[in-house]
From TrEMBL:
Pfam families: DUF4032 (PF13224), Kdo (PF06293). It comes from freshwater metagenome. This is Unannotated protein. InterPro entries: DUF4032, Kinase-like_dom_sf. Residues 230-393 form the DUF4032 domain.
Amino acid sequence: MTHQPQLTGTDRDDILSLPWGIPLEEWPASVLVALPQGISRHTVRFAQVGDDVVAVKETTSEMATREFDLLRQLRKRGVPAVKGIAVVTDRRDSSGDDLPSALITKHLRFSMPYRAVFSKTLRPDTATRFVDAMAVLLARLHLSGFYWGDVSLSNVLFRRDAGSFAAYLVDAETGELINGELSSGQRANDLEIARVNIAGELLDLLAGARLDPSIDPVTLAAKFVTSYESLWAELTEWQTMDSTETWKIAERVERLNALGFDLGEISLSTDLPGNAVKVRPKVVDAGHHTRRLIRLTGIDAEENQARRLLNALDEYSARSRKDDQWDEGRAAHEWLVSEFEPTIDSIPEDLRGKLDAPQVFHEVLEHKWYLARQRERDVPLAEAAAAYFSDILRHRRDEEVLVSPPTTTISLPVITDWRDLV
Ligand SMILES: Nc1ncnc2c1ncn2[C@@H]1O[C@H](COP(=O)(O)OP(=O)(O)OP(=O)(O)O)[C@@H](O)[C@H]1O
Ligand SMILES: [Mg+2]
């Protein structure tokens, strides 16, 4: 009987059907899925298991277990990170020699490593959105007590989020979850590591002529630091004001909501001279709009996509209000079945791997607006969608599968459930 490796963290024994007796470097193309990936020290490959695509990383059993636990805890705390599925240990090859252990994570669909995003065509304003997304990720990690220790573009995955990007942590290996708050020294350390790594990674792209020459790597890396710092101040700083100026609190809450953060209680300190008070909001969670959209429609979208879809929903609701029974829940249901779902269902089969559903809907809305301006009349949603599919989406790069495998053509399962994106 062939040797069975140990599987921990899951009861999915279909994972054991992967060729664990062979070094990952030598896995046959028949089990692999060719997807874009970042640079890494360890061997990482994507494989098909049942309906899932998983990322397999060879490493030591200690590291795999440690990273698996960290990823699980981060997801529990609501931080955007890849999802740990299992750890495989006790692998042997056919001669009985030991093979490295492996960490298995769920492949983050429609995600792109930075090398796939930073291309020649990248405009500087897109680059800024990109580092802003990374600053939001680092602030969220720090708020949840995570010291990363290896902040770099290679350790982040990006997904389109309406006109911006959403960043996900992919490599938690060097990280540490702290009980309580991170010290300012720990945060400063992460920032310095980020600054140096981002500048280095961008310089590397520049050297390979893969970066728009108008982007200065060092300036962009410094922009990351200021972007993080202003966000961190908005999230955590005590604000002193006169007790008659408490409307300033509402303003700050609005600004933070707009950035996607939800707030709990506001701490207030009054032991100051005169009428002065000191306030600080407690951030309970990010994903303000994402959560509202899920609650109303079940659509799981990134923050800016959710904001966009909610605007469309609110507009629909105002347009279609029928009677006194009309409420948010009913409007959401009608919008979903009469606008969102028909649009998504009408995506031609062969274009479904290009973008995720909320992003397609966002882009259809953009195109509808564009056509209306061009034709100087309102354009129905279905007409705008059809024009968008044939004139824009068809010519877009496929983001789900970017790289063709060397020998065979591997197609991913058609996305039937767009809710299961992560
Ligand atoms: N779950 C996943 N979904 C999508 N891509 C993934 C996933 N896991 C890994 N990758 C890809 O594989 C690359 C390498 O993974 P990772 O950073 O964990 O390896 P590493 O060897 O630990 O890296 P480092 O050299 O920074 O230590 C990532 O940059 C990413 O592009
Ligand atoms: Mg890495």
